[in-house]
Design a protein that fits this description.
Elements: E1 17-21, H1 28-38, E2 42-46, H2 47-61, H3 68-75, E3 81-85, E4 92-96, E5 99-100, H4 102-105, H5 109-114, H6 122-135, E6 140-144, H7 148-152, E7 158-163, H8 166-180, H9 185-201, E8 214-217, H10 223-262, H11 267-284, H12 289-305, H13 311-325, H14 332-345, E9 356-358, E10 364-366, H15 375-381, H16 387-395
Parallel strand pairs: 1-6, 1-7, 2-6, 7-8
Antiparallel strand pairs: 3-4, 4-5, 9-10
Helix pairs in contact: 1-10, 8-9, 10-11, 10-12, 12-14, 13-14
Length: 397
């Protein structure tokens, strides 16, 4: 996994997390997978996979899963799971040491019957929580489980609680079981009742609706309909975030410009703007046109352009902007300006001729430019006017 924002050095700054809680058979994993297909900037993680894997390991070893300390000591070094997507069918893959373990943990009546005991193991739950929160410092996460929005991520960006009638959930789980192994409807019902009784009686983290959760009752809904309701809420959250970010970026940019036009340098403003921009990026990614509009994206670029005292951060901003430029989500001319600025400040020749300096006579002159012969071709590729026009404009300043 590429930890894109590691260079920002923002410890414990969590990115966007969507939690999906609810009782067994409510469709948590299905919604998580469908959201993952629809939201490419998020990584799907199944918290339940950790508990199921621990359950499977204990059952295979013949351990008494009620002996908490013994269980913890047995599985604590076996919880390094990886999540990915099957390129052939798009299904989520859970791996342990490079081996796909889905067939051992999902739709297994024996595992399903015993898994409710494992989350009651406080030490193990704490270990899994720590691993997941560290994961969420680096990636936008979609996570499905039983207490993801109450225990693991009570501060999640969006909390969803899925529910459905008991009969509807038994029907779904019975269909899942029947695809893998013959099991009666009555046995499925018995397993579900036993599991729900255990989960509701847990001391540390009983099954409850997370505070502030968006509730979806999908008793009568198809999975596609449940997805559309959830996506509508995601879009609502993104729009709200975008509006708030736009106002904040505008305020930051206005302070930046007011300070520069006043002629009175204030390094504190640059430092505060750079620190806050890092925090924004760590949570939301680069503020692109989709998130904050064209004007907001220009404010973000301006702040990165003036973050000269943190060259590594500027380079990281440039990488993110180039990625967005490939999808027409940032102004390509802004990318050119930032790239030239970084090159000049590192003692190299600029590519697009955007950076100037004043000589001893007070005249604006361009910083050294590489390959002047093809300069206008490069400028045209990023939407900049011919260099001759820009040069005349700069000389009049």
């Amino acid at each position: 996994m590429v930890l894109r924002f590691a260079i920002l050095d923002l410890r414990f700054q969590m990115k966007k997390v969507i939690t999906i809680d609810g009782p067994a058979g409510s469709g948590k994993s299905t919604l998580a997978r469908n959201l993952n297909y629809s939201l490419p900037d998020f990584q799907l993680v199944d918290m339940g996979a950790y508990f199921r894997w621990a359950t499977y390991l204990c059952l295979q070893a013949g351990l008494d899963i009620t002996r908490r300390r013994q269980v913890y000591n047995f599985v604590k070094d076996e919880m390094d799971l990886e999540f990915g997507e099957d390129k052939h069918n798009g299904e989520m893959m859970v791996k342990y040491r490079g081996k796909i373990i889905n067939k051992y943990i999902y739709n297994k009546p024996r595992v399903d019957q015993n898994v409710a005991e494992i989350p009651q193991h406080y030490l193990l739950r704490n270990l899994i929580k720590k691993n997941l929160r560290q994961y969420a410092e680096q990636e936008n996460v979609i996570i499905a489980g039983r207490d993801t929005g109450t225990y693991t991520f009570p501060d999640a960006w969006l909390k969803i609680y899925l529910t459905a009638s008991f009969d509807a959930r038994v029907d779904r789980r019975h269909r899942d079981f029947s695809q893998k192994k013959q099991i009666s409807y009555e046995e499925t019902q018995r397993i579900m009742k036993l599991r729900e009784h255990r989960e509701s009686k847990e001391k540390d983290s009983p099954l409850t609706k997370p505070r502030g959760a968006f509730i979806i009752d999908n008793t009568q809904l198809k999975s596609s309909e449940t997805l559309q309701i959830a996506l509508k809420e995601v879009k609502k959250k993104l729009k709200s975030d975008g509006q708030k970010l736009f106002k904040e970026l505008k305020s930051m940019a206005e302070k930046d410009q007011a300070m520069r036009k006043s002629g009175r340098w204030n390094e504190r403003i640059d430092q505060e703007n750079t620190t806050r921009l890092k925090e924004i990026i760590a949570i939301h990614g680069w503020p692109d046109i989709n998130l904050v509009g064209e004007e907001g994206a220009e404010y973000a670029w301006l702040l990165a352009q003036h973050a000269d005292r943190d060259k590594n951060f500027q380079k990281n901003c440039l990488e993110m902007m180039k990625e967005k430029m490939a999808r027409d989500l940032v102004n390509s001319a802004h990318v050119a300006y930032l790239e030239d600025r970084i090159l000049v400040h590192s003692g190299q020749k600029q590519k697009y001729g955007t950076q100037f300096f004043r000589d001893d006579d007070g005249e604006n002159k361009p910083q050294p430019i590489i390959d002047r012969k093809n300069l206008d071709r490069r400028r045209q590729s990023v939407g900049l006017k011919p260099f001759k026009e820009y040069l005349e404009k700069m000389r009049k300043r």
